[in-house]
Amino acid sequence: ATPMSIMTATGRGAQNGVLVKDAEALERLARVDTVVVDKTGTLTIGQPAVSALVPAEGVSQDVLLSIAASLEKASEHPLAEAIVRSAQIRGLPFKEADGFEAIVGQGVRGDVAGETVLLGSRRFLETEGIELRSLIAASEQHQEHGATAVFVADGPKLLGMIAVEDPIKDNAAKAVEALHAAGLKIIMATGDAERTARAVAAKLGIDDVIAGATPADKQTLVNDLHRQNRRVAMAGDGVNDAPALAAADVGIAMGTGADVAVESAGMTLLKGDLEGIVKGRKLAKATVANIK
Ligand code: ADP
Ligand code: MG
């Protein structure tokens, strides 16, 4: 591409909230046929709120939330912020917590008032030997609506389940529809559970879902698509998306997300508006056509 046409294109992109790192990123975007998208913070606004508290038998809602929030106070995960905010709104006391440890894509662990508390996905707690049976039906019901189920255990004892819901972005459905119309394949790759992921995907018309994905799984997915000769754009906002963003032909970071995501990506959607992918692609196509 000529320097002039690239400059025009990047200038026009910036007006639309699409920042392009270099000419190569723009050229590669024109040739993309597959878009992998993260869920939390990318398709959803990334500002989840607690939608239900389901304590285990003999536990109160306040105890469940207070212990969960005491531990989540040390976490920067959007789910953690939702749980902390909910406890603050209820005016619940925060207990002393230490030994905090985050297990990326799974949950957190730490000591609250002298007991080891585990908090996170069903898979995480089950792997740690916590019996969740009494709350599975309730958790699945919330997941069917697109909520994330966060389980909490105090020592070996199950405290309960917290449902957290993250609204889908305004323009997400429109962007997915436009990308589909342009003949692109769209795959959701998320660390969240299968049922929640499918519910959100169904609302947006996305048919391919990879759930329970670790950061390495997301990267492997991009590499597998490459092996199938697909040209891949990956859109994501988190630390957990950085390896996949770097592996993709074009990494597309949300300007609203983590710094490492932006650094790993060739493009940034300043306000996280997914329609920027559609606009950026049109611009890229026009620019590449210009120089042929
Ligand atoms: P995504 O790929 O959708 O952005 P993550 O990889 O960040 O999601 O997280 C995957 C799952 O790990 C979450 O859905 C949640 O079940 C669990 N998890 C991770 N960190 C936390 C935390 N701090 N609090 C609660 N759950 C967590
Ligand atoms: Mg995310």
Automatic annotation (TrEMBL):
It is found in: Cell membrane. Belongs to the cation transport ATPase (P-type) (TC 3.A.3) family. Type IB subfamily. This is Cu+-exporting ATPase. It comes from Roseibium hamelinense. The lineage of its organism: Bacteria, Pseudomonadati, Pseudomonadota, Alphaproteobacteria, Hyphomicrobiales. The chain holds residues 452 to 743 of 800 of the full protein.
